[in-house]
Design brief:
By secondary structure, the chain is α/β, with parallel strands linked by helices. The chain has 15 helices and twelve strands. It has two domains: 64-291, Rossmann fold (3-Layer(aba) Sandwich), CATH 3.40.50; 314-381, Winged helix-like DNA-binding domain superfamily/Winged helix DNA-binding domain (Arc Repressor Mutant, subunit A, Orthogonal Bundle). Helix 8 (188-197) links the parallel strand 5 (171-174) and strand 6 (199-202). Residues 79-291 form the Smf/DprA SLOG domain.
């Protein structure tokens, strides 16, 4: 680690995620100077916008950057900063609120993992419907070689990670705590599996605990890393909606999966779908169409099964519908009900018979379905309409 990495690692301890005042000072003065000023007993640069210096300096004397970096190395992690070869440059869209640095853990480099990525987020108190839809959605994304990004939380987040892992796809969990902290505790095994096959990432140094504010700020990183954000289930007040609106502010695609109109877990998604520039999606193919290559990644259009009469012209269709399905009818009655002349009806009935849609019936007292001279044939429909 060079001096800039060490300085930024130290600043990760002093500031909080999303601190745009700290980001502005870094942009103007660089990490060495900002760290020096914070360690000295003096006024802060004007970029801090009259922030209380004690808000940063009160944390001086805690774990050192060297300690944090040594811990990260011990668990097989990496610390990347803006300008590094492995820095995900889409995070620069956050401006002064971009992370000071990122603490990564896992075999897949974050920048590589999120080149083709979709964020899938939603309610912690999800329903069976939400879990099922999320598994289907993320499994399809994994099959299409798309990385699933989420927050590692209970509910839809966990289902998103599991759906991707079940299909052998890489997944990224953006944490609101250190990458060595298993939170929530019930996801210890899931997070360990992601660390073995995908990527855990955080703005916070090892050992840091989560907080409500850190969860909120974590959402902006999820939104910025991905090409688009899908909300599966979300109540009217939901962190998932914060992620979606951050994504929209960044110019990313925002998508929502509809749910039952009576379910409070989907009320926030339905509200989101009523807003402009939110795409309704129901499967992975529709998600990929929204975030993939224009003109290439088109979702197949849903169509019902092709019926034998689908390609009939209007007049033979009227003739077919005039033939009763349960009792034979004479040609004269069929012509009257269809509003088609007798000669045309006879021609259409023969064509429909060749296609197996109608059949001539034998007249009473006759062994043949062929009408005798002077008599008219009777017909019955052989397929449902």
């Amino acid at each position: 680690m060079d001096e800039e990495h060490v300085a930024r690692a130290a600043l990760c301890r002093l500031g909080e995620p999303g601190d745009s005042a700290l980001g502005a000072a870094l942009r103007v003065h660089g990490p060495h100077e900002v760290l020096r000023v914070l360690q000295a007993d003096g006024p802060l640069p004007t970029e801090f916008r009259r922030r209380d210096p004690d808000g940063y300096r009160v944390r001086l004397g805690g774990p050192s950057a060297a300690d944090d970096l040594a811990t990260l190395t011990r668990i097989g992690g990496r610390f990347v900063i803006p300008g590094d070869r492995h820095w995900p440059t889409q995070l620069d869209d956050l401006g002064d609120a971009r992370p000071v640095g990122l603490w990564e853990r896992g075999p897949v480099r974050l920048r590589h993992a999120v080149l083709r990525s979709v964020a899938v987020v939603g309610s912690r108190a999800c329903t069976d419907y939400g879990t099922y839809v999320t598994h289907e959605l993320t499994g399809g994304l994994a099959d299409g070689k798309w990385t699933v990004v989420s927050g590692g939380a209970y509910g839809i987040d966990g289902a998103a990670h599991r759906g991707s892992l079940a299909c052998g796809g890489p997944t990224v969990a953006v944490l609101a705590c250190g990458v060595d902290v298993a939170y929530p505790r019930g996801h210890e095994r899931l997070l360990a599996r992601i660390a073995e096959t995908g990527t855990l990432v955080s703005e916070l140094p090892p050992g840091c605990s989560p907080s409500r504010v850190r969860f909120v700020e974590r959402n902006r990183v999820i939104a910025a890393l991905s090409r688009g954000t899908v909300v599966v289930e979300a109540a009217v007040r939901s962190g998932a909606l914060i992620t979606a609106r951050r994504a929209r502010q960044l110019g990313r695609v925002v998508m929502g999966v509809p749910g039952p109109v009576t379910a409070p877990q989907s009320a926030g998604v339905h509200q989101l779908l009523r807003e402009e520039e939110t795409a309704l999606v129901t499967c992975a193919a529709e998600v990929i169409e929204n975030v993939g290559v224009i003109g290439d990644d088109l979702a197949p259009r849903a169509e019902g099964p092709l019926q034998v009469w689908d390609n009939l012209a209007p007049e033979p269709t009227r003739v077919l519908e005039a033939v009763p399905p349960h009792r034979p009818a004479p040609e004269s009655a069929i012509a009257r009900d269809a509003g088609v002349g007798r000669t045309a009806v006879r021609m259409h009935l023969r064509t429909l018979s060749e296609r197996g849609l109608v059949a001539a019936q034998a007249l009473p007292g006759s062994d043949s379905a062929e009408a005798a001279p002077g008599e008219e044939a009777v017909w019955i429909r052989t397929v449902p309409r």
